[in-house]
């Protein structure tokens, strides 16, 4: 689904991604782990086109992402839920969801009923302003916005951050359903290990801009957690 090879990126003189090679298989959830500031969000932005790597290769379904401009990547099936949610607080819930259509170059379409089936609370609150929702509900809203274009690859940047436990569980259930029942590939950027273990099939750990360990979830051991994940 997604393959990056020897990806390098800089912010000024800061070498923030160093030869990052990572694969996100079809219909599975891969978690990119690591402490704050190691390059996880930068990597996600490179995939969706908000940053342009200095060197390396990126392939999505076999297509060269370097040749695909940012405005075409959502239409090609890459969904992105950024850290911090970034919903529009003055728009209604339904209007927020519909902004997802514009990311793919279309507008004015009706929100599919299955979106509200995934997140029933959004149906109850569809006429409320996005800014009136709780943090957890706003996270559900941000995910719903990304799902209206029926992505093949969904990138979630720390969706459990600052969210109440019951909604974290609901989000975990949705991620599991997306990968297992809808064959959507998920790249999860996350630090919370209990949440990761509920949803991820494989992991990669990033430290100082490099992938330092990766494998199936059964290969993630306490030594890795202590060295690279515990603050």
In angstroms, what separates the terminal alpha carbons?
32 Å
Instruction: Give the H and E element order.
Output: EEEHEEHEHHHHEHEHEEH
How many structural domains?
A: 1
Total beta strands: 10
CATH third-level topology: Rossmann fold
Strand content: 25-35%
Shape: globular
Rg from Cα: 17 Å
Class of secondary structure makeup: alpha/beta
Biggest sheet details: 6 strands, mixed
Strand order of the largest sheet: 6-7-8-3-9-10
Helix content: 25-40%
For the record, what is the CATH homologous superfamily label? P-loop containing nucleotide triphosphate hydrolases
Number of helices: 9
Parts with pLDDT < 50 across at least 5 consecutive residues: none
* Name of the top-level CATH class: Alpha Beta
What's the CATH architecture name?
Answer: 3-Layer(aba) Sandwich
Mean pLDDT: 91
